[in-house]
């Protein structure tokens, strides 16, 4: 697999040239407090593709240093998503931040012994007050000059459950006047009494991310720690931890940053996604309207289309907002070449072929994919009574209407040319049935007497049709940029009430019943669909529309 070059590759090429490392080793470090989303796909892609490109190793490491929100449910979902997206298990292995709690504690004790860390009794509010501002330096904690012996004792007592939550922290002793706020004696350990999803109540103190992450990277011999751009100002702290804990660590990793993936008409914050789930605004983390990888998978997106989207969106250091239509373009472009074709009538009206015998049945041979000869053909049953699409008939046709109208002709896909002779309407004037005659010499698409029949419509035998319901999806939010919510509003004010539309009473050709679950199909002229992975209560087949058949969106060239 080829990977488009980007600035991170240039950094690695230079590092290899300078002899920094012989083998590239990357990692993806998700926190197991929610499901992965399309933004996570970019981070996975960057780390996995770099390891693949340079014949290196790629680790999955769970950042489980905050037990309050973490759960094994999220662990299992992340394992599934990463393997689904990359097509393989992490080549370097699967690890947990909690694997390194003893090492983090050892490093913290080392810093205390070196006079580079101290136990502080300031509350969270007091720490913020002492921290200063972007224009004013902070001031030293009154506990900053505790002796090494006292700090060692207090830190051990913190570990031994002597103090309540929030009463003490361990802070790195760096520089309270640093222009970088992250270097103003940051907290590196806090007291948290909560049951950890893996290790139970073994620990009541937990390292903070900025302290634990570089230690974990070093323990796994990570060469390049690729982070999103918000961690750029944290890099000096990352390097400070690695440098000052060097005697305890086996390697010296390097952090570099890239811009996050922001997509129109959706949200990427796990806090917001969790709120949507917990308040019932969506039908779970795997709701096909969600930007989660499990939601995209259930909707029918493929790993290759998501990776293509990430590639086209680009890897840079500058934040940008990527049009969600690019994601739709990528799956549409793929499915146009690979999806099976099947006929489905979404809003049916009955067509009766009056000159076709009631007891006669025949089949017509129809191609499975005109772009793929290897896909072969199938036999579709034809009977006197058919279902056609409501929108394929117009009692009073608009200009240039090329489908069926009174006294007009169309060809049925792969079958006969038919002419509409009579329109049956109900008492409200709604068209409920069409009586037509077929040119029985025109079967299998044969041309007749040089006549030009411009319209071709799809159809399903009424006798053999399968009943189904279809889910049609639209953007979850009406606001293009959900990071720019107008004052006085919240992102929830822009939930799209039309984001899901359910069509019931749909009629599908019978061969769809034989298509394996998970197969992506083009319902001819209607869009691309996949059978929903969650069954309906009454057993009715349900299909999710992956994407519409066409769109005017034109992507930039690669």
Notes on the protein architecture:
It is a single chain. This protein has 558 residues and is of the alpha/beta class. The protein has three domains: 7-258, 3-Layer(aba) Sandwich (Rossmann fold); 270-340 and 468-547, Beta Barrel (Ribosomal Protein L25, Chain P), CATH 2.40.240; 344-457, Ribosomal Protein L25, Chain P (Beta Barrel). It is 25% helix and 24% strand. The protein contains twelve helices and 27 strands. It has a seven-stranded mixed beta sheet, with helices on one face. A seven-stranded mixed beta sheet has the order 21-18-19-20-14-17-22, with no helix packed on it. A hairpin with a 4-residue loop joins strand 18 and strand 19. Helix 4 packs across helix 7 and helix 7 crosses helix 8 (235-244). The longest helix is centred in the N-terminal third of the chain and has 16 residues, at 38-53.
Give a nutshell description of this structure.
Helices cover 25% and strands 24% of the residues. With 558 residues, it is of the alpha/beta class.
Characteristic key phrases:
single chain, about 550 residues, alpha/beta, Rossmann fold, Ribosomal Protein L25, Chain P, 3 domains, 7-stranded mixed beta sheet, 12 helices, 27 strands, about 25% helix, elongated
SSE blueprint and pairings:
Elements: H1 7-17, E1 25-28, H2 38-53, E2 57-62, H3 72-86, E3 93-96, H4 101-113, E4 117-120, H5 124-131, H6 148-159, E5 169-172, E6 187-191, E7 205-207, H7 209-219, E8 224-228, H8 235-244, E9 254-258, E10 262-263, H9 270-278, H10 293-299, H11 303-313, E11 321-322, H12 324-338, E12 340-342, E13 344-345, E14 348-353, E15 362-367, E16 377-382, E17 385-389, E18 409-412, E19 417-425, E20 431-439, E21 456-457, E22 459-461, E23 466-473, E24 500-508, E25 520-523, E26 527-531, E27 541-547
Parallel strand pairs: 1-2, 2-3, 8-9, 10-11, 12-25, 14-20, 18-21, 23-27
Antiparallel strand pairs: 4-5, 5-6, 6-7, 13-24, 14-17, 15-16, 17-22, 18-19, 19-20, 23-24, 25-26, 26-27
């Amino acid at each position: 697999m080829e990977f488009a070059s980007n600035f991170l590759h240039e950094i690695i090429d230079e590092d290899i040239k300078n002899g920094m490392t012989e083998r590239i080793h990357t990692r993806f470090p998700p926190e197991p407090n929610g499901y992965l989303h399309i933004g996570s796909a970019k981070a996975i892609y960057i780390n996995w593709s770099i390891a693949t490109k340079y014949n290196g190793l790629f680790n999955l490491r769970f950042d489980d240093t905050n037990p309050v929100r973490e759960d094994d449910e999220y662990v299992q979902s992340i394992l599934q998503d990463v393997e689904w997206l990359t097509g393989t298990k992490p080549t370097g292995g699967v690890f947990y931040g909690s694997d390194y709690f003893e090492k983090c504690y050892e490093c913290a004790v080392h810093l205390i012994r070196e006079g580079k860390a101290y136990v502080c009794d300031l509350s969270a509010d007091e720490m913020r007050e002492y921290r200063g501002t972007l224009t004013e330096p902070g001031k030293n904690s009154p506990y900053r000059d505790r002796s090494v012996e006292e700090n060692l004792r207090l830190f051990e007592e913190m570990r031994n459950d002597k103090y309540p939550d929030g009463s003490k922290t361990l802070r790195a002793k760096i520089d309270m006047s640093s222009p970088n706020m992250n270097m103003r004696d940051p907290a590196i350990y806090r007291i948290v009494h909560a049951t950890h999803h893996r290790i139970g109540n073994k620990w009541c103190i937990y390292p903070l991310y900025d302290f634990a992450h570089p230690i974990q990277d070093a323990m796994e011999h990570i060469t390049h720690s690729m982070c999103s751009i918000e961690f750029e100002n944290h890099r000096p702290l990352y390097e400070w931890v690695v440098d000052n804990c060097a005697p305890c660590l086996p390697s010296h990793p390097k952090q570099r940053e890239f811009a996050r993936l922001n997509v129109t008409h959706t949200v990427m914050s796990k806090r917001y996604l969790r709120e949507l789930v917990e308040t019932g605004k969506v039908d779970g983390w795997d709701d096909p309207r969600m930007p989660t990888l499990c939601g995209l998978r259930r909707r029918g997106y493929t790993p290759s289309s998501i990776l293509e989207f990430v590639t086209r969106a680009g890897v840079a250091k500058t934040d940008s907002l990527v049009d969600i239509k690019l994601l739709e373009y990528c799956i549409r472009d793929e499915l146009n070449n690979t999806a099976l074709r099947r006929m489905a009538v979404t809003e049916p009206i009955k067509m009766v072929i009056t000159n076709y015998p009631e007891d006669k049945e025949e089949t017509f041979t129809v191609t499975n994919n005109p772009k793929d000869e290897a896909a072969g053909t199938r036999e579709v049953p034809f009977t006197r009574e058919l279902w056609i699409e409501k929108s394929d008939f117009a009692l009073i046709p608009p200009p240039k209407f090329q489908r069926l109208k009174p006294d007009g002709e169309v060809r049925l896909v792969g079958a006969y040319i038919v002419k509409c002779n009579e329109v049956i309407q109900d008492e409200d004037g709604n068209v409920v049935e069409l009586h037509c005659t077929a040119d029985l010499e025109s079967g299998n698409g044969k041309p007749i007497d040089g006549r030009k029949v411009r319209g071709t419509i799809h159809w399903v035998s009424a006798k053999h049709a399968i009943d189904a319901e279809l889910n049609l999806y639209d953007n979850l939010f009406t606001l293009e940029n959900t990071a720019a919510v107008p004052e006085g509003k919240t992102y929830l004010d822009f939930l799209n009430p039309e984001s899901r539309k359910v069509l019931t009473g749909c009629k599908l050709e019978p061969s769809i019943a034989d298509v394996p679950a998970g197969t992506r199909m083009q319902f001819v002229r209607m869009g691309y669909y996949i059978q929903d992975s969650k069954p309906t209560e009454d057993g009715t087949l349900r299909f999710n529309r992956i994407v519409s058949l066409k769109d005017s969106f034109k992507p930039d060239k690669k």
